[in-house]
Amino acid sequence: MNIQRFMPRPIRKLLSLSSHQLKYELRSNLWFICVIYALIGIGIAGIAYWIDISSQYGESAPAFFSAGYSQTSTIVSSLIAGSITLNAFTLNSILVVLTNFSGQFTPRMLVTFVADKRTQHVLGMFNLVFVFILMAFFLIDANVETYVAFPTLTIIFMFLGLATFIYFLNHAVNWMQVPNLTLNMKNESQERILATLVQDLEPYRTKEPNTSVDELPETDKMYIAADGAGFVQIIDYRRMVSYAEDHNLVVKLEKRIGDFVLEGIPVVSYWKKDNTPVDENALRRFIFLGSKKTEVQDIEFGINKLKEIAIKSIGNDDPNTASNAIYQLTDLLLSISKITRFTPYLTDTNNDLRVIIEDESFDYYLYAALAHISIYAKSDPIITNDVLEALALLTESVAGENHDMCWNFAAMIARGYISPFVFEHNEKRFYASLRSISETTDKREEYRSLEEELRARLTPDNE
């Protein structure tokens, strides 16, 4: 009997996640770390209660560390108000600043800041201090004359809260500097997306399964429709491959991670190899729909965050920020090309084809990252040159099988640029980047033809 069938969908979603996916879900929510720190605060308050009230060690403690009931009550009641004020001031100030930054760059910046482990530990520490002092306020007893743990720990925690406040301000200021902002977003995408894919998807990928797709006739294909609307957030590849192996199926995913589906739209199809009964609801449960896109398995989602920063920076006449985002995007694309094997076939331990995912390739992510930026920069020689220089660096680093894609994309960007060059320096950078890409990809003849075409159109003397 499968108990998970009777569990709420959010619980089933968490239970199906790998360790990397579960870590992402927990880190994306402040409540988890705050609950942990609150429990620590309650535990410390319990220890202090045992020291001061159950064992009454305060009577034998040095006078410097001990305090009477009235003094302890005054300390605790005063500092609990200070703790609340400190927390409220900090969070209010940071939220105002982050809201402004979100409007300027990307609304996903707030989520990224909240998911930062330093941010979460700082907020957790604030929670610990407040919970401990609040517990102390209710636990101190007028019948006990001398206290040592409660007053001492209350003062120590308040100083710790003040130090945390200063650290938090410094952390927030550093985090919101544009180079750090784009670097943090890129690192987050590399950590969460690529690490998740390596563990959950890549072990099953192969380019040459035992079964050919040509052996699967379309007439025998059975479709399973979505039972609700939403974005495809997570696909449980491990259990899907296992289920297909147990029931001798070949399953095809009709939608990719991040796609939006409506109720009744096919999301999964399958081929039966024998008469083993198939529970279509089981296959449907391996796909989790939600109200928003997430970064757990969606490579494109991580790319879009940096792309949004670059595009908004172009609109705000901030070329330095746009350039920084472009180079971080290039680094992310390089990581994707190194880790991901671009094949749609997932197999079991016997290399038998079990799951077919939506076909993808390196050029798909290359276009997703830089095509939109190049459209916004088609009249801006500075940003266009940054895109071409970043592409030249990427071309030198990726495997040879991706060189044709890089050259074709570079030629497309160059042809899309429409503004004649006013400054010779910009023109030299433009053609130098194209020349570098052509030499790396062995497209020298194509480059000479492209250069003649572009000079005829972009040189001011020819206007």
From TrEMBL:
Keywords: Membrane, Transmembrane, Transmembrane helix. It holds the Pfam family DUF2254. The chain crosses the membrane at residues 30-51, 75-101, 122-140, 146-169. Coiled coil: none annotated. The keyword Acetylation does not apply. The keyword Transmembrane helix applies. This is Putative membrane protein. It comes from Sinobaca qinghaiensis.
